[in-house]
Amino acid sequence: MSEPLISVIIPVYGVEQYLNHCVESVTAQTYRNLEIILVDDGSKDRCPAMCDEWASKDPRIHVVHKINGGLSSARNAGLDVATGEYIAFVDSDDWIEPTMLETMLGWMRKHATAGVVMCGTEKDYEDGRKEHIDGHLPEREFSSDEALHDFLHHRNRMASAVWNKLFKADFFTGTSHIRFPEGLNNEDYYVLAQVYRTMRGILFNPEALYHYCIRPDSITTAGLNAHSFDRAKIADKCREYLLESGYQDQASLDYFVMQGRYDIVYDLARMNMDSAVLNTWRKELAAKAKPVYRDASVGFADKMKIYMLAWFPKLYVRMTRH
């Protein structure tokens, strides 16, 4: 085929209830020249057999069976065998619109400076509710510096995920050879920090082509566990990488490091965790917030939110819930 090959990497673990819907949405894409890589991450349910069944039905599907290593490990295993000119990621409990890859490839072709394109996301809840989380934002192309600044400040959806994007494969196969950090959640941030730093630009279009399904037992809805504090570790890891690469916007790096602690404290207070754990991270947030308070580019209202959460976390969460 003259059309470029797109590699779609789908990590699979414990999702037998959702897997068929996900894979069907990928195999039904209007863009046909696909390499669909199902990475069975040592799943204990029917997923390994289901992956093999899909491969027997569609020659575009390849299956990697591996011992359990987590989401990052599964995605890396997919990247290691991908041969496409472009790379897309789809989580196995989500699904995509039938025109997603064709549309996003079209965006890529129209914007020569974009090494990445990003679509809008619709959250699908189990009770039937739907929420287009970025539909209010305009289409826009960001330079590397603009994307990094908004990523570090969590603005304009630049701090999102890898699954609502189409990447040129060079980020993962070229000299950058970007990979996900294994053993940590919020791994997407570390990949995006590297992609944004090395790309020329990214195009964002709010059209909701990716469906992010919210289920009670997903990583993002889990209670306190071994990965509850990974957001701080990833924030620090991103900061270290960006500093080593020569990035010089110290104020934005300070904000990003603070935000990692802010998210942890908010979740701990929301889950009404015991005071000892909450107090440890509240103090951590208060310490990391000091340079942010001195940053004139951060608004007074935002500074007050940070201050309230750092000193009165449970009160702040109760106030913001109403």
Give an overview in words.
The chain is of the alpha/beta class and 322 residues long. The chain contains twelve helices and ten strands. It is 44% helix and 19% strand. Strands 1, 2, 3, 4, 5, 6, 7, 8, 9 and 10 form a ten-stranded mixed β-sheet that branches. Strand 2 (34-41), helix 2 (47-57) and strand 3 form a beta-alpha-beta unit. The chain starts with 5 loop residues before the first strand and ends with a helix. The mean pLDDT is 95.
In brief:
The chain is an alpha/beta fold and 322 residues long. The protein has helices at 19-27, 47-57, 71-81, 100-110, 144-152, 170-173, 187-198, 230-244, 250-270, 275-293, 300-311, 313-320; strands at residues 6-12, 34-41, 61-66, 86-89, 95-96, 116-125, 130-132, 140-143, 165-168, 201-214.
| CATH third-tier fold name of the largest domain | Spore Coat Polysaccharide Biosynthesis Protein SpsA, Chain A
- Write out the CATH superfamily name of the largest domain: Spore Coat Polysaccharide Biosynthesis Protein SpsA, Chain A
Instruction: Report the principal-axis shape.
Output: globular
Cα end-to-end separation: 55 Å
Using the CA coordinates, give the radius of gyration.
20 Å
Spans of at least 5 consecutive residues with low confidence: none
Number of strands: 10
**Percentage of residues in helical conformation:** 40-55%
Text of the CATH class of the largest domain: Alpha Beta
Major β-sheet, in short? 10 strands, mixed
Strand content: 15-25%
> Would you identify the CATH architecture of the largest domain?
Alpha-Beta Complex
| Secondary-structure element order, N to C | EHEHEHEEHEEEHEHHEHHHHH
Structural class: alpha/beta
Number of helices: 12
Number of domains: 2
What do the pLDDT scores average to? 95
